[in-house]
Amino acid sequence: MLAGADEAGRGPVLGPLVVAAVAARSPAHLARLGACDSKLLSPDKREQVATRIRAYARCEVRVVSAAELNAGMRTRTLNQIEVDAFAEVLARLAPSRAVVDACDPVADRFADHIMRRLPPPPCEVRARHGADRSHAIVGAASIVAKVTRDAIVRDIEREIGEPIGSGYPHDPRTRAFLQRWRQEHDDLPPHTRLYWATVAGDRPLDRRLEKYL
User: Fold this and answer.
1) In this model, does residue 201 exceed pLDDT 70?
2) What 8-state DSSP symbol labels residue 170?
3) Number of domains the chain contains
């Protein structure tokens, strides 16, 4: 059994990080179902392909909320939090081999950290940069993660009662929402990440978003 794992929502300022793993005996069949890098598909197409993937393969998802990230990143890096999330979803599937999209600049280090956190039986983990483009099973995981995160963001919009965009700081709708909320409430909105840099040495959000707020 081969598994692939990937994340969605590493860089947003609003909303969760989602890590997904997909396990299947025939990764080639996942490619025939349309599995590929989720960024290459439209939202509607991602939904369709995600439904096919879930019907064919075993899938596990770990949602790390903004609140959980805020608490964890006081003492840990985002990479460390992601290692735990990747290990958690792979442990549920218990594959013999896994390919993951590397979040660490040193791909082999990322794989090694994941393997150290996996319970027996042993699983061979390989990490590759851009694995969602080169491995259909990782592309499948990227689609499941992305579709899950998009649904959660829409739930957040319904909770707040107004559009928030994608949650990424480069999104004009997200920037407009942040500016409007800050002006009206003199505070940051719910589901905001207080720490969101993608490397060690993370700085508080307020300093990083001055140009948006």
Assistant:
1) no
2) T
3) 1
CB count in 10 Å sphere of residue 43? 11
- Please report whether residue 177 resides in a domain: no
Distance of alpha carbon 176 from alpha carbon 30, whole angstroms: 38
Place of tokens 């081969």: 2
| 59: enclosing H helix or E strand | strand 58-64
**Cα(15)–Cα(179) distance, integer angstroms:** 17
Between 45 and 207, the higher pLDDT residue: 45
103 - beta bridge partners? none
Note whether residue 17 is domain-resident. yes
Q: Virtual CA dihedral for 190, 148, 130, 207, nearest 10 degrees?
A: 0
CB atoms within 10 A of CB 180: 12
pLDDT recorded at residue 195: 77
pLDDT above 90 (res 166):
yes
Helix (H, G, I), strand (E, B) or coil at 7: strand
**What is the CB neighbour count within 10 angstroms for residue 203?**
10
Residue-range definition of the domain harbouring residue 25: 2-156
5 and 20 Cβ atoms separated by less than 8 Å: yes
- Whether residue 73 is contained in a domain is answered as yes
CATH number at residue 112: 3.30.420.10
Question: Which of 63-67, 125-129, 169-173 is predicted least confidently?
Answer: 169-173
Residue 173 lies inside a defined structural domain of this protein: no
